[in-house]
Amino acid sequence: MSGRDLSGLTALVTGASSGIGLATVQRLAAAGATVFGAAREGRADLIIDVAAPGASETIVAAALDRLGGIDIVVPNAGISGFVPLDGHPDALWDAMIGINLSAVFRLCRAALPALKASRQGRIVTIGSVMSDHGDAGMAAYAASKHGVLGLTRSLASELGPFGITVNCVQPGAILTGITAPTFAAMPEFESLWRDKAALKRIGTPQDIANVIAFLASADAGFVSGHGIVVDGGAMAHP
């Protein structure tokens, strides 16, 4: 096997029932991988809250039972929210950090023995353009996504000796089931990001899934410890 062919490999994807997660499941499967998906709701192999106590161990055990091994881990599950600091509830901060960052750490830790046994171990985390930037009302989200990028870089250093690559995909404005209501309610927000992008469009889940598939492939075997911004050129001139 070489290049972009993922035949014979197995993948675990969280947040797998919609948006970027669903597109990733479909894209990896189209490349030949056998994929196990976990999600909080919707259609997936396992319905579970990734932030619940013991969830990561449960997800990995279920994936191993179904797949026999895990070569690719995509901890995609995440939430977003726009809340000014004044009056920002602790509960939202805790939920954002818990789902977007702590659950990623725990899933990678739980999957590590399987990844060490893999001939092509890959972790592809999901950050954001907010992994490098910040914006008003995005304190919790930006902090969580900065953390994901930092975690990615640290794990790349630690796991490289085992042949495991770790990279972070950083989406810009992407049209998903989560963002669609915001774009519909605030057309000016969609116009802002569409016009900001050099390619003059909002991204799709497939745009992100394509990059994830590349990073999971043999073609990306010497790429590790990096954040790959996928935003149509929006942040090239912030």
Structure in words:
- The N and C termini lie far apart (41 Å).
- The protein has a single domain (10-174, 204-228), classed as 3-Layer(aba) Sandwich (Rossmann fold), CATH 3.40.50.
- The radius of gyration is 17 Å and the shape is globular.
- The protein has a seven-stranded parallel β-sheet, sandwiched between helices.
- The protein is an alpha/beta fold.
- α1 (19-30) links the parallel β1 (10-14) and β2.
- α1 (19-30) packs across α7 (205-216), α2 packs parallel to α3 and α3 packs parallel to α4.
- The chain has helices at residues 19-30, 55-67, 90-117, 139-159, 180-185, 187-196, 205-216; strands at 10-14, 34-39, 46-47, 72-74, 122-126, 165-171, 227-230.
- Helix content is 43%, strand content 13%.
- The model has no long low-confidence stretch (mean pLDDT 93).
Task: Set out the fold topology.
Layout: E1 10-14, H1 19-30, E2 34-39, E3 46-47, H2 55-67, E4 72-74, H3 90-117, E5 122-126, H4 139-159, E6 165-171, H5 180-185, H6 187-196, H7 205-216, E7 227-230
Parallel strand pairs: 1-2, 1-4, 2-3, 4-5, 5-6, 6-7
Helix pairs in contact: 1-7, 2-3, 3-4
What brief labels describe this structure?
238 residues, seven-stranded parallel beta sheet, Rossmann fold, 7 helices, alpha/beta, globular
Trace the largest sheet across and list its strands: 3-2-1-4-5-6-7
Structural class estimated from helices and strands: alpha/beta
Within the CATH hierarchy, at the fold level, what is the topology?
Rossmann fold
Q: Which CATH first-tier class would you pick?
A: Alpha Beta
Chain oligomer state:
single chain
For the termini, the CA-CA separation is: 41 Å
CA-atom Rg in angstroms: 17 Å
Mean pLDDT: 93
